[in-house]
Design goal:
The chain is 37% helix and 24% strand. The termini are far apart. A hairpin with a 4-residue loop joins strand 1 and strand 2.
């Protein structure tokens, strides 16, 4: 009788073990279940970006977005020294667009790809989503999305500066 009870006990333990492993596996996402974009869909409350860009033809830009939504820009020599000159405060829609690019290309986890010499352009980026910051350096198109992020932020400051200075139509 004692052996019979031990057998039932062992069967029960093994059954519970398989059940718990099965439940654990069912709730763990597989690679196919992973989203194609990274990070939360909603923009973090404190998003900041610094992006220094150096082209082979000696053009330089430094763009900084503070966690308060203030966008600053400098070009040329001031950019090489990372001088911050506030230009405008971005709207919620503009900040959402910035976050969408960062999320689309998973730039908060981009790898440092600064190997060799750039053919056209070098980027140094820092992206912070509150307490966590991520820095990386890359050249040309080795990290997809960096150029798109640069062009988006550059466009926001250009719209304001050209409109204020009376150059072009601005938006």
């Amino acid at each position: 009788m004692m052996q019979h009870t031990n057998l039932h006990l062992r069967i029960a333990v093994v059954s519970l073990l398989f059940l718990s492993v099965g439940i654990g596996c069912a709730s763990t996402p597989t690679m196919q279940d992973e989203p194609t974009t990274a990070g939360p869909a909603a923009r973090p409350a404190r998003l900041s970006v610094e992006l220094y860009t150096a082209w082979k033809d000696h053009r330089y830009t430094y763009i900084k977005l503070t966690d308060k939504g203030v966008l600053g820009y400098t070009g040329g020599r001031d950019a090489t020294q990372r001088v911050f000159k506030p230009i405008t405060t971005l709207s919620d829609a503009q900040l959402d667009a910035v976050w969408a690019v960062i999320r689309k290309y998973n730039l908060t986890e981009a790898k440092d790809t600064m190997f060799g010499t750039a053919e056209r352009v070098t980027y140094q980026a820092s992206i912070s989503t509150g307490g966590l910051g991520h820095n990386f350096r890359t050249t040309d198109d080795k990290v997809p999305g960096v150029k798109e992020l640069h062009d988006l932020l550059f466009g926001y400051q250009a719209d304001v500066q050209f409109k204020v200075q009376g150059i072009g139509g601005g938006k």
